[in-house]
Amino acid sequence: MKLLVTGGAGYIGSIVTRQLLAAGHQVEILDDLSKGFRDNVPDGVPFHQLSIHDVAQVLTPDAGFDGVLHFAAKIAVEESVSNPGLYWDTNVRGTLDLLDAVRAAGTPRLIFSSTGTVHGNVSGDDPSAKITEDAPVAPTNPYSSSKLMIDLMLAGECGGSNLGAVSLRYFNAAGASLSDAGHLGERHEPETHLIPIALQAAAGDRGEFFLFGDDYDTPDGTCIRDYIHVEDLATAHLLALDNTEPGQHKIFNLGNGNGYSNKQVIDVVREVTGAKLPVTLAPRRDGDAVVVVASSEKARRELGWVPTKPRLSDIIADAWTFYQYDKGRS
Ligand code: UDP
């Protein structure tokens, strides 16, 4: 297939692109490089440095794209709380611009990078409950709200056209794609995610490591998340591409179904890196959900998706290898 990857110079988009190319697809990337990196774009892949708002310049009726994988988005929870307008503009309005182009071009397939956090604290009452696709939605911050709005837009769009769309609701992506062609991994600036921040602290590359809250209603008082290896996440996109159906919008939750508390994550980072990693307790972070753990039974059943690296220690070990590689080249 000929595919457009928006946000393909970013963390997850670049790793999905690597897998699409390996599977024999033809890929073009659109990215404004506000957060992505030009060196994440493989040689020979046409690259359009453009805002998502200008996607119609690339996704034209004549370009002949068979599908779009849409990653271009703002992704920081805390920033979304302080600056919601940015999230409505880039995420919601940007997707409107994409859908206008998709409609005009008659593009048949769209895979969307959604988030498990659209469900908010749904499993808060029963921490053992895993979140299914039909669980109630209750986003706790503008980032998650913007992703939910897009899921709803896609449902409406498919209802009135031949577009086949899939929303993949990621739980917590981590790890890296290690390859002789160069490692791809997480390098957000500023970094906000737990695992890369803990690795920076373990490497002695940042001052203090702050743990945001230890008074939640969980066994050790810290928030619980479901970490999924980014390569397993990427594989689901390729399966989803083959699973789209005209006029239908499907949703799949992607996680391993195992919850790890922030304190447990810190312990595994200590094991993997051998660092002491001192922790400074800080207030709760605005907008944080308490327990977010996926049921991915539907993805296993309907997509035939099987995660190959579900162990947190393997996920963190790959992230650590990438961290050292990235530091070594800068
Ligand atoms: N977290 C933390 N210290 C940090 C970064 C994150 O304690 O420096 C916590 C955060 O409050 C949340 C968990 O780690 O409870 C996962 O946060 P992350 O931003 O990685 O993912 P998300 O919020 O999207 O689940």
Automatic annotation (TrEMBL):
Cofactor dependence: NAD(+)
Uppermost EC category: isomerase
Gene Ontology BP annotations: galactose catabolic process via UDP-galactose, Leloir pathway
InterPro entries tied to this protein: Epimerase_deHydtase (IPR001509), NAD(P)-bd_dom_sf (IPR036291), UDP_G4E (IPR005886)
Residue ranges constituting the NAD-dependent epimerase/dehydratase domain according to the UniProt record: 4-255
Recorded superkingdom: Bacteria
EC identifiers of the protein: 5.1.3.2
Catalytic activity entry: UDP-alpha-D-glucose = UDP-alpha-D-galactose
Pathway it works in: Carbohydrate metabolism; galactose metabolism
GO molecular function annotation: UDP-glucose 4-epimerase activity
Keyword annotations of the record: Carbohydrate metabolism, Isomerase, NAD
Oligomeric and partner information: Homodimer.
Family: Belongs to the NAD(P)-dependent epimerase/dehydratase family.
PANTHER family: UDP-ARABINOSE 4-EPIMERASE 1, UDP-GLUCOSE 4-EPIMERASE
Protein name: UDP-glucose 4-epimerase
Protein species of origin: Actinocatenispora thailandica
